[in-house]
What we know:
- The structure is a single chain.
- With 135 residues, the chain is mainly α.
- It has helices spanning 3-27, 31-34, 50-73, 78-102, 107-134, and strands spanning 36-41, 44-49.
Amino acid sequence: MNKSIGIEVGWVILVGFTTILLIGFLTHFNFFINNTVDIQLHDTYVVLDFWNSFIIIFLNLCFWFFLLRQLKYKFESKTLNYFQLTLTGLLILYFPIVSSILQFTFLYYFTLLYHSIQIFVLAKVAISIGHQIKS
Length: 135
């Protein structure tokens, strides 16, 4: 395995452990007992199973973490570009499914803005990959 791929996989695993710890602290580690995550948003109470909440938080943390690493390396790392492309694509595909299941109307504008940011980052990464392939 290429050294840079191993480093990126290590970062993904670290973000996964961070996600589990974050969910654990938010739920007082009750998800081990009842396998659900309870979220109270103002006057709305949402119950998600552990895996849906894990995937939502994990993909969002990966998006922001790898975006910060991309900004540090100025989008020049080919392996990092591929990881960012894959994780952002998964987030763009998965987030509307979950938000439609939850049927939150107040999340509509937030989702629209958030997807715009993600699509911008996705375009920047794709352009960087194209420049790397061309050279």
